[in-house]
Amino acid sequence: MEKTRRIQTLKENHLFARSYRKGRCFSGKYVAIYVLKNGRDKDLVKVGITVSKNRGNAVKRNRTKRIIREAYRVFHPFIKEGHIIVIVARQPCVDAHLSVVVSELEVLLSKAALL
């Protein structure tokens, strides 16, 4: 089940809001994920990454997003299709190493039954 396609990202605010409102939440020390079934595109997985402004300046927020994106890239070929996933960075994630975020994301994705 090897996917070679690019990671589809969430860009619309209403999809983020719907994921927060109606999606299931799984949280850990470094990240929290919101999972929602995608009603329209049943063969796509859309991923959104958010880092709040109170997590630091733009440099820290962008570094955190890059780390989370790279951690997700490991699991992208194995994710079940037809879901919207929003990954929210928590405060300890700003100073965390990639391997720690990868291991926690694996636990959360398996709890959500997406792997």
Describe the structure.
The chain has one domain (12-111): Ribosomal Protein S5, domain 2, CATH 3.30.230.10. Helix content is 37%, strand content 23%. It has 3 helices and 5 strands; from the N terminus they run βαβββαβα. The longest helix has 18 residues, at 58-75. Helix 2 (58-75) crosses helix 3 (98-111). The radius of gyration is 13 Å and the shape is globular. Strand 2 (24-27) and strand 3 form a beta hairpin. The termini are close together. Strands 1-4-5-3-2 form a 5-stranded mixed sheet, sandwiched between helices. The model has no long low-confidence stretch (mean pLDDT 92). With 115 residues, the chain is of the alpha/beta class.
Chart the SSEs and their pairings:
Blueprint: E1 8-9, H1 13-22, E2 24-27, E3 31-37, E4 45-50, H2 58-75, E5 83-89, H3 98-111
Parallel strand pairs: 1-4, 4-5
Antiparallel strand pairs: 2-3, 3-5
Helix pairs in contact: 2-3
Can you give me a brief rundown of this structure?
This protein is an alpha/beta fold. The protein has helices at 13-22, 58-75, 98-111; strands at residues 8-9, 24-27, 31-37, 45-50, 83-89.
Stretches where pLDDT is under 50 for at least 5 consecutive residues are none
CATH class value: Alpha Beta
Distance between the termini: 12 Å
Tally of alpha and pi helices? 3
Oligomeric composition of the shown chains: single chain
Main β sheet profile:
5 strands, mixed
Helical coverage, percent range: 25-40%
Structural shape: globular
Number of strands: 5
CATH architecture: 2-Layer Sandwich
